[in-house]
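Reading a protein record of the kind used here takes little practice once its layout is understood. An example of such a record is reproduced below.
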Amino acid sequence: MKLIAIVEDEPKIAALLTDYLVREGFATRHHAEGLGVVEAVRREPPDLLILDIMLPGKDGLAIAREIRAFSDLPIILLTARVEEIDRLLGLEIGADDYICKPFSPREVVARAKAILRRTARTAGLAPAQPDPIHLDEARYAVEVRGTPVTLTPVEFRLLATLMGRPGQVLSRTQLMDSLYLDHRVVSDRTVDSHVKNLRKKLVDAGGDEEWLRSIYGVGYKIDW
């Protein structure tokens, strides 16, 4: 049974997450403050950590930094703070996902399952499955489960950038830097439009709409 540690100082949120995770077959451990979390992770590592940023004792970003110094433990950050710099800082320290409050507990469970599936594949704990998207950068060719997909050069670079860091959230700024070889200035809406077009083409070729996901206020990630 997978163990998920929840670090959350709001009792109602912690209880709600615990209920949903237990219902899905996970074991849980709850910490109501930041102090002692790193030591607990060292002593009894969970399979995944759901970590609030605003905590008494020690904040979540400090905890994540300390854990990243000795462990690749999957981390999902929770926060009510919506400033972009906080989001990017959270991603730069190695968080695997980032969810803003208020959120649906079902969404947290779904993301936790996706991260655990991915880490299991990486660790060789689950049968290796071929990626449903095959990208041939030498030929500028893309296939979705064997079906060819015609992409524009910008869409191809967008897909290649996302697939280069599967499961990781990339900000719009990061994506913009990779889309245009002449480094022209484009707006966030331009990136959003390219993502929308790319998602439609993948779905039309037999892909899943959930592969290419928008993380509100942060950016985009690709995962399956």
